[in-house]
Amino acid sequence: MSTPLNGKRVLIITANTGIERDELLSPLQALREQGASITHGSIKGGTVQTFLHDTDKDRTVESNARLADLNGDDFDALIIPGGTVNADTLRQDADAARLIQAFSLCGKTIAAICHGPWALIDAEVIAGKTLTSYPSVRTDLVNAKAEWVDAEVKECTAKGWRLITSRNPDDLPAFNKAIAQALQAA
């Protein structure tokens, strides 16, 4: 049976703790249901700890790979979930930055939600882009020469690649839909 995203390969990157559960699992499930092949890469590989509302430990999830072992050429889109600890850890990880830069240089879709855009700052890929995020990330994004808007989902195609961002878990339906549409168009 053919589904809209058959043959599309998506990489979701996280740290090993501090991931906002729904921001990881909702895109993973929504895109997988449409036929996309999903790889969840984490810094150390193996078990990752999710949280609810950034403070309450939730379930653990197994990642498929370590970021160091992944290559951006093998995927069509990159997703960066939020969670303050997750995003703050990713922004300091050289392999996360390498992957983000590879996706932007190849003109591929990058989607980040909530605090996830923090990782884009340190990868030095957002100057001149327009995006949204959790409100507390606004100043950091503006200081990195991005334009910030308050929107459920913001798509920006400046500088040759597509950036999809959303503010928080309430925006997940629009975020997931925008990613699926970008993959179908690619």
TrEMBL record:
<keyword id="KW-0315">Glutamine amidotransferase</keyword>
<dbReference type="Pfam" id="PF01965">
    <property type="entry name" value="DJ-1_PfpI"/>
</dbReference>
<feature type="domain" description="DJ-1/PfpI">
    <location>
        <begin position="8"/>
        <end position="181"/>
    </location>
</feature>
<dbReference type="InterPro" id="IPR029062">
    <property type="entry name" value="Class_I_gatase-like"/>
</dbReference>
<dbReference type="InterPro" id="IPR006286">
    <property type="entry name" value="C56_PfpI-like"/>
</dbReference>
<comment type="similarity">
    <text>Belongs to the peptidase C56 family.</text>
</comment>
<dbReference type="InterPro" id="IPR002818">
    <property type="entry name" value="DJ-1/PfpI"/>
</dbReference>
<protein>
    <submittedName>
        <fullName>Type 1 glutamine amidotransferase domain-containing protein</fullName>
    </submittedName>
</protein>
